[in-house]
Design goal:
Strand order of the largest sheet of chain A: 6-5-8-9
Structural class of chain B: alpha+beta
Radius of gyration of chain A: 26 Å
Number of domains of chain A: 3
Number of strands of chain B: 5
CATH topology of chain B: Heat Shock Protein 90
Number of domains of chain B: 1
Oligomer: heterodimer
Low-confidence stretches of chain B: none
Number of strands of chain A: 11
CATH architecture of chain B: 2-Layer Sandwich
Largest interface: A-B, 24 and 26 residues
Order of helices and strands of chain B: EHHEEHHHEE
Strand content of chain A: 5-15%
Shape of chain B: globular
Radius of gyration of chain B: 14 Å
Number of helices of chain B: 5
Distance between the termini of chain B: 15 Å
Largest sheet of chain A: 4 strands, parallel
Helix content of chain B: 25-40%
Mean pLDDT of chain A: 91
Chain lengths: ~425, ~140
């Protein structure tokens, strides 16, 4: 499984800030630096936020190298347009970036995001109350979190492709071009969407460059960012709203043509809480659930240069027309009729944690051992053993990936008992020496 | 035959915030043992609903899970007011939950029916003024 985090071993001091932040306990500190348990990582980027030393970075593609190959066909993440002081109308951005050697595929993006919302609304309408709510697949970290921790909810994922993939596919179909498509990504999860896609193979995109890198080079290049009103009339740019929490939900409910109940949450903790409630069957009456692991939605991504709070305000101020005009509906219905333009190709398999043993009886006896080890530990989850919690430590020990003396408190106990032994040995004297009185 | 694994949680009356802890623990334990995810989910739902019953009606109590090689047995014991008509209580939509519980989105009268639906064995015994015991089993 490919991952989108880069570890700088020279910057890593082996502190335990990152391992505590990981929602799936995928990090350990071994031999003084971070190790990622690849099967458990969902690329949410929380560890990058937690690292003060910038030892964890985004493992994106080389922007200079991509640009060296001539015109870049690019899908700007919806968070891109508000990075420059005010909302940059996508068609003006496209015009300006043409001279910079970058072609923004905004028309395809517009169609793809509209199609995704349209398909979602159709699918939801055709399901009964027991089969709802369905869950958005837009945030790749959420999809992986479900795969790993909520496998029973895989059947609740909307069976549609990520609109970014749909957009690249539409562009390829229109131009018949084999040129690679590059995503300006706000987060590691969307890099993994390209490198290790779920539900399709391979991704319709080829490269991903961090939004921060692109915005910085663009600002340094002298390309003029201009705001103007003229283009506003022709297009709706509904996809811009997807950069904020609730944007997708709004899009889907506006296209549904009847009242549907949607729930949108952002942030890792809210996402996990919400998924837990869906799993327990507590969200009766809700039709659609949108989860984003980053605070405020994609604007809170780790590779976003501008303040997420400002971006949220700017995006909220865009005047978006949500009405689905008859012409647009006809166009989308025609695309919707051809399932392969939007439908998720393969079912996403569950990826559960490896059990303590494949044999239940053996697993149970290891569980007993694990509980016994846990009972001996200090339960303060200090992280000094390099693991996120005492429970994770006891699990690692029964999986033969650690020693009880990795725990600094147990080590100290060992030293104390050894020291006591030495003292009592020192008290023993041969008969030839006179005893101290 | 391995020795059974026993989990016990105390549930405090009206503690809506802590509710869900027992459910999560039992689910994670079953997962680690390699039990199929659909069974883990059923166990989580039973535990959660039973836990909520203790919070809302039972005046708190004890919830236990006993995992053996062929099944998991989930039990609750409380010394609350008891259920006058058990037949009625396991009907969908029947509820005696107070306003507080309903304001928080609980007490829709789905708890016991939901438990029954997810369990392979379901026994409830209750005596007014003495309390209620619930015993459910899910077979692997």
């Amino acid at each position: 499984m490919a991952h989108s985090l880069r570890i700088s071993y020279s910057a890593c001091h082996g502190c335990v800030n990152c391992i505590k932040s990981c929602p799936t306990e995928a990090l350990r500190v071994i031999d003084g630096s971070i190790t990622i348990i690849k099967d458990l990582c969902v690329d949410c980027g929380e560890c990058m936020r937690a690292c003060d030393r910038k030892a964890l970075g985004l493992d994106d593609d080389d922007w200079d190298l991509i640009r060296a190959h001539g015109m870049v066909e690019a899908l700007p993440d919806p968070t891109f347009f508000a990075q420059f002081g005010s909302f940059w109308l996508p068609d003006l951005a496209k015009k300006a970036l043409g001279s910079w050697g970058v072609d923004l595929l905004i028309d395809e993006m517009e169609t793809a995001f509209d199609l995704s919302a349209y398909a979602s609304s159709r699918i939801i309408k055709n399901l009964s109350q027991e089969q709802l709510p369905l869950i958005s697949v837009y945030c790749p970290a959420v999809v992986r979190l479900i795969q790993l921790q909520f496998p029973e909810l895989l059947s609740r994922l909307l069976p549609i492709e990520n609109p970014l993939d749909i957009a690249a596919e539409l562009w390829r179909k229109r131009t018949k071009s084999y040129a690679p498509v590059t995503l300006f990504t706000p987060c590691p999860a969307k890099i993994t969407l390209i490198r290790d896609p779920l539900g399709r193979e391979p991704s319709a995109l080829q490269h991903a460059v961090s939004l921060r890198k692109v915005v910085h080079t663009l600002m340094a290049s002298g390309v003029k960012v201009t705001a103007s009103q003229e283009a506003r009339l022709r297009h709706m740019w509904r996809f811009a709203a997807w950069s904020m929490r609730g944007g997708e939900s709004k899009h889907v409910s506006c296209f549904a043509g009847r009242d549907i109940t949607v729930l949108a949450v952002s942030g890792l903790r809210n996402t996990i809480d919400l998924l837990q409630q869906v799993e327990l069957g507590r969200l009766k009456g809700v039709d659609f659930v949108e989860c984003r692991t980053c605070d405020l939605g994609c604007v809170g991504g780790v590779a976003v240069p501008e303040s997420r709070f400002l971006l949220n305000v700017r995006n909220r101020n865009i005047d978006i027309d949500w009405t689905l005009t008859p012409q647009k509906e006809e166009e989308l219905a025609a695309l919707y009729a051809v399932e392969k333009t939007w439908k998720m190709r393969d079912a996403i398999p569950s990826k559960q944690r490896v059990p303590l043993s494949n044999d239940l009886s053996e697993a149970m006896s290891r569980m007993k051992q694990m509980k016994a080890i846990f009972a001996e530990l200090p339960h303060i989850d200090c992280g000094a053993c390099g693991r996120p919690s005492c429970m994770a430590m006891s699990e690692d020990i029964v999986r033969e990936q650690g020693e009880i003396t990795d725990c600094i408190f147990k080590l100290r106990e060992g030293i104390v008992s050894l020291a006591n032994q030495i003292v009592s040995l020192a008290d023993l004297q041969p008969h030839t020496i006179k005893k101290k009185r | 035959m391995a020795e059974a694994i026993y989990i016990e949680h105390s549930v405090v009356a009206d503690d809506y915030l802590a509710a869900g802890a027992a459910s999560n623990n039992i689910k994670e334990t079953l997962k680690m043992l390699g039990i199929t995810s659909s069974i883990c989910r059923r166990a989580a739902i039973i535990t959660y609903e039973a836990e909520m019953n203790l919070v809302i009606h039972g005046g708190g109590g004890k919830i236990t899970a006993n995992i053996s090689e062929g099944s998991v047995e989930i039990k609750t014991i409380d010394h609350g007011p008891g259920i006058p008509d058990v037949e009625l209580a396991i009907k969908e939509g029947y509820t005696t939950a107070g306003d507080r519980a309903r304001e928080m989105g609980f007490g829709a009268g789905m708890g016991l029916p939901n438990i029954k639906r997810n369990a392979d064995e379901f026994v409830i015994e209750s005596e007014v003024g003495k309390g209620t015991t619930l015993r459910t089993v899910i077979r692997f």
